[in-house]
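Input/output pair, single chain:
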Amino acid sequence: MHCRQIRLGPLSRDGVVALLAHELDPRVAHRLAPGAFAATGGNPLLVRALAEDWQASAGSAGREPPSSLVVGDRFAERVVNCLHRLEPEALALARAVAVRGEAPDRA
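Output:
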């Protein structure tokens, strides 16, 4: 069997809205999309994780659905998964940012 890996670019802002609208109520999707795009850069895996975190929070018994983006466990897990797919240097940089709390200055 012959396979070819195809790299896809990130979703556009409209693409993020469309993906969120597929997962959530369209009104909620439009409200969350700007923050989701900023947090994910259009990565579909991460956008879906934000939708799942929002749904989990909205489904909590006795709570009102959140009015803003929810960055929860699913998002954190998928970010870590994405980092482990990168070169070792990228993972090292992410670890340094996590420790410092900010990106180091470029030399």
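The two ends are 46 Å apart (CA to CA). DSSP finds five helices and no strands in the chain.
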